[in-house]
Amino acid sequence: MDTKYSRRTFLTSAGVLAAGSLFTAPLRAALGSAEKNIIVALDPSNGYSGWQPGQAIPEKIAPIKAPFAMPQLSRPTFKNVDFNIVDYGAVKSTWGAKDQILCSEAISKAIDACHKSGGGRVVVPKGDWVTGAVHLKSNVNFHLQAGATLHFSDNPQDYLPMVHVRWDGVECFNYSPLIYAANCENIGITGSGTLNGHGDKWWPWKYKKDHDREMAASQPLDKREFGLKGGVTSQRPVLLCPWKSKNVLIEGVTLIDPPHWTVQPVYCENVIIRGISINSRRGHNGDGIDVDSCKNVLIEYNDLQTNDDAVCLKSGLNQDGIEIGIPCENVVVRHFVARNVITGSGGIVIGSEMSGGVRNIYVHEALFEDCDRGIRMKSTRGRGGIVENIYFENLILTRIRDEAFNLNTAYGGGNVGPAPLFRNIELKNIQAHDVNCPISLIGLADVNLEALSVKDCTFTHCATTAVIQHAKDLNFENVTISSADKMTQSLQLNNVSNSTFTGMKLNQDVIMAECSNIQFESSIA
Known about the structure:
Blueprint: E1 23-25, E2 82-84, H1 104-116, E3 120-124, E4 127-131, E5 134-135, E6 140-144, E7 148-152, E8 163-167, E9 170-174, E10 179-182, E11 185-191, E12 194-196, H2 213-217, E13 240-243, E14 246-251, E15 254-256, E16 269-274, E17 277-279, E18 289-292, E19 295-300, E20 303-307, E21 311-314, H3 318-324, E22 328-342, E23 346-350, E24 358-371, E25 373-378, E26 386-408, E27 421-442, E28 449-462, E29 466-472, E30 475-483, E31 489-506, E32 509-513, E33 516-524
Parallel strand pairs: 2-3, 3-6, 4-7, 5-10, 6-11, 7-12, 10-13, 11-14, 12-15, 14-16, 15-17, 16-19, 17-20, 18-21, 19-22, 20-22, 21-23, 22-24, 23-25, 24-26, 25-26, 26-27, 27-28, 27-29, 28-29, 28-30, 29-31, 30-31, 31-32, 31-33
Antiparallel strand pairs: 1-32, 8-9
């Protein structure tokens, strides 16, 4: 039989609810004077006062202050000497012209000369230039001057021979990324010019039916040939990929229309990505920045409009990622804006390829606007791996079409193999307004979500109920959830244990099923 509570607050600290039972408590009392510090609903017209696109970006990189040990990062330094691609035979060419001329060879010669002389800056001057794959080398700063646009050929042949990459979480040999830097130290991609990936002819490849990345991963690495001449299939290249490199700077450039993902550093250390603009909304799988099994990364002052994840942290798929075992760790993402993020994705995402582990991540001072989701964390059985020590602070979310905060370890429906573990995750001072679902946290019955803390957060003008399932050791403190219209309930807890909810402010009911050792204190929002 249901039990109803009409008092102003309620506590349940030791009871275990039997399978199939329902615990309901309407929360209807008016706020008293003790609730003067209630968090008010976000006013989207003035709720965000941080950096926005078009504003100046500090030249100096501010100190990193993270809730975990992380070294301070600084830009790599380069010799003060320029190597202009024109001096090596580059000729301007309008994209799509009948007499279009590729500058691939000239750019390669300039990079070689720069590298052999001990480094410096390879300059792409103002104007339009067309090229195939660009391969960087150590101590080279590849610099696009203001008004320079580097157009990348849409002919797959211009990205052969194949190179070693990680494609959607699986190591393989595929077309070269449009810009590739393998085993380099001290490299830069800088300037205020534009990198145009011209992905139009690549995007239809998304619908090819002849590729199974999990099946491909079961083969030896030398058999995983994803390029045109390979034995498995052909896959779209990413636009920019530093690979197994150290001291990487990507700053100032604009990147548009990638064939696949946009920026994907893999197995790199000491990476700075700042002041870039990405627009990948016209294509498919156009992730903005995918940090893949990297260590010590700073991402700041970026303007991201993406078809798929704006910023995503990854570390490999299933057994391939587990065996490689390189986590994504020590990453700070701050002072950025994610707008118009579509195809179900979010402003900041972890997974779903996270089998090598993700740890020590700090995301703060950001705006997510008109996105499908805000914060998204996803995995599934078969991935394995541990995601831990994740911190989100001082974020504004407005006009979110799905969940403001979504964590799902049953994503994709995997039902065999090692289970992922997500734990030690903290949200602090998150303000979300005009969202469909405020919170959706879904763990596995045998491997619960663990040790999540949500403090001083507001979720206002919500359309549907917040849901938490298969979780333990939660701490919610001073959290407001209020609906746009009258809902049946504000919060639903299923199979949640050993958790505390204090200072909750809800404008509808809370429903609990099969929960144990829950302390719940709430008043009406």
